[in-house]
Amino acid sequence: MALVTHVNVCNTMNEIYCCLRNKIVKLDAEQREVFCKECKMFAGEATGFRRGISCVWEDLRTVSNPHIALDPAEEFKQNQVRQVPPEGPALFLYSTGW
Ligand code: SF4
Question: Alpha-carbon distance 42 to 88, whole Å?
Fold first, then answer.
């Protein structure tokens, strides 16, 4: 699995999908200070976009690198699919979230 740079561009409500918290979050001062500041996935601002943040993590999906994430709701939805190890049953598990 390759490390993918996710360029998370804020939607009109200043929201992005946060991999660390596995939820849609407001990219506000609290998110940046409490979560992004110490996050190992933090990779800087969303270069080339007015508002957003870049995060690097291993993506189970087949996506481009960098992956431009314009829709946090779609990102959240797609990232709830978990792969089962090859030795496990041929099933996909769906997280129920919090
Ligand atoms: S840097 Fe970490 S905490 Fe901040 S949005 Fe990305 S994954 Fe979430």
Answer: 32
Nearest CA to ligand 1 atom 4: 36
Structure confidence by residue, pLDDT tens digits, 34-75: 999 999 999 999 988 889 999 999 998 999 999 999 999 999
Residue type, 74: E
pLDDT for residue 85: 62
Residue 83 neighbours by CB under 8 Å, 6+ apart: 60, 92
Q: Indicate if ligand 1 lies below 6 Å from the C-beta of 9.
A: no
Type and span of the H or E element at 17 = strand 15-18
Q: Which atom of ligand 1 is nearest to the CA of 40?
A: 2
Q: Are 9 and 69 in contact (CB under 8 A)?
A: yes
Residue nearest to atom 8 of ligand 1 (CA): 18
Q: How far apart, in Å, are the Cα atoms of 71 and each of 34, 53, 56, 76, 83?
A: 23, 13, 17, 9, 22
